[in-house]
Design goal:
Oligomer: single chain
Largest sheet: none
Amino acid sequence: MSYKFNINNTTPSAGQIDRHKDFKKLRANYEEAVKPLYKKKLYKDMRTFLVVLIILLLTYVLVEVFENEDKKDMPVNKEQNK
């Protein structure tokens, strides 16, 4: 396997260099990427909040569906109702 290296690369212009010199944004992106998910506040990270909310709602719906199916399958004994 051979690699192709471009040695005669042109130097970028001052405008192109200045466009990538946003160190505050770089630092913020780095802090966001390095911080563990369990330490992030859910109300500040909307995507994580929505994923957790959807998982909880699906769990609730599945539990309700299975409980209703169990109640329908159970035979009703009329002597216990008296």
